[in-house]
Amino acid sequence: MPILQPGSAAPAFSLHDGAGHPVSLADFSGRPVVLVFYPFDWSPVCGDQLALYNELLDEFDAQKAQLLALSVDSTYCHAAFARDRKYRFPLLADFEPKGQVARAYGAYEPHEGCAERALFVIEASGVIRWSYLSPMDVNPGADGILKALESLS
Amino acid sequence: MTQLTIAVGADDHAEGDASAAVTLVEYGDYQCPYCGAAYPLVKQLQKQFGDDLRFVFRNFPLTQAHPLAQMAAELAEAAAAQEKFWPMHDWIYENQEQWSGGDGEELLGGIAAVGLDAVKLEHALKQPQVARRIKADFNGGVRSGVNGTPGFFVNGRLHQGSPQALAQVISRLIDR
Predict the structure, then answer these.
(1) Are strands B53-59 and B22-28 parallel, antiparallel or unpaired?
(2) CATH fold label, B13-175
């Protein structure tokens, strides 16, 4: 299944972040959400990609948008990764059933057993406004996300 | 194909002539080890291509990953007020291993090493345009598709390969 396309309703989810707190998509209802699926904590491309987004939290804030990043890693792994890299946004554990949320968004890679490198911008009403699937080994940057967020306002 | 959205202009820090066949723009983070590794490569390219190459440096500090990157960028930008941007830029990269693990004291050693007037520098550092420029560089880089550092653009086009592959790309453009 290809990744969900613009115009689709964003599937609801509730997962735990690195601190063990539940985080639901519905928690951010009324605000845009930037949803970032990535393969694995600690992998080089993922680290660079998330480091870039970590620098852009002010930009996302200015658009009232919430950044959420998801991988199949566990909450303890997320906590260690976030602490080491000083990430200031939630890393959600799509851990059990493994990759369930990634599958719902069409962003699961069954052979590698991980999420694809997929980006979604969800508008305040809960509809996907923009989505992008990047090759596993390519850091997609942030220009597409920022353009999509600006198109909302 | 990802393009440079902010054209190279008079405000940029540039080495080489605007009429050069090739303009190489680097989005760099002073504390990034990969940028440190690319620094001698860029020098080598400048030597190899001479007047055919213009080099432009723009700031792309990943401040959460590299706690001294912003301070280093500010030092270089403030040094520009004394016409010493490039000496400061070069000193920072040439001594990256010495200051990178420290608390900033070693980095400040660059002020004397480059022969800057410390009082003037301190004044320049307080000017809001220093931080504003770094932020503007960063934002322009993000818009242009820079996804990490160093991010290179050759004649406005994002270089997707390794820094080592730059020589080949540049020489092809010059031979055209």
Answers:
(1) parallel
(2) Glutaredoxin (3.40.30)
d(CA B65, CA A116): 24
pLDDT tens-digit readout, A81-98? 999 999 999 999 999 999
Q: Between β-strands B53-59 and B13-15, what pairing exists: parallel, antiparallel or unpaired? A: antiparallel
pTM comes to: 0.92
Q: Which residue of B has its CA nearest to A85?
A: B65
CA distances from B92 to A98, B42, B77, B95 (A): 46, 15, 12, 5
Phi, psi of A62 (to 5 degrees): -60, -25
- pLDDT tens per residue across span A46-92: 889 999 999 999 999 999 999 999 999 999 999 999 999 999 999 99
- Contact predicate B104/B71, CB 8 Å: yes
Nearest to B147 among A48, A86, A146 (CB): A48
Q: Is B145 on the interface with A (CB under 8 A)?
A: yes
The residues in B 1-40 lying below 8 A from A, measured between CB atoms, are: 2
CA B93 to chain centre: 10
Strand order in the sheet with B157-158: B13-15, B53-59, B22-28, B151-154, B157-158
Partner B contacted by A140 (CB < 8 A) = yes
Taking the CA of residue B130 and the nearest CA in chain A, the distance in Å comes to: 18
Cβ atoms of A133 and A117 closer than 8 Å: yes
Domain-wise residue ranges, chain A: 34-135
* Residue B26: DSSP 8-state: E
Nearest residue to B79 via CA among B9, B130, B133, B14: B130
What tokens does B138 get? 């960063």
Specify whether the CB–CB gap between A5 and A131 falls below 8 A.
Answer: yes
Say if residues B166 and B45 touch (Cβ distance below 8 Å).
yes
Number of residues assigned to chain B: 176
CATH architecture of residue range(s) A34-135: 3-Layer(aba) Sandwich (3.40)
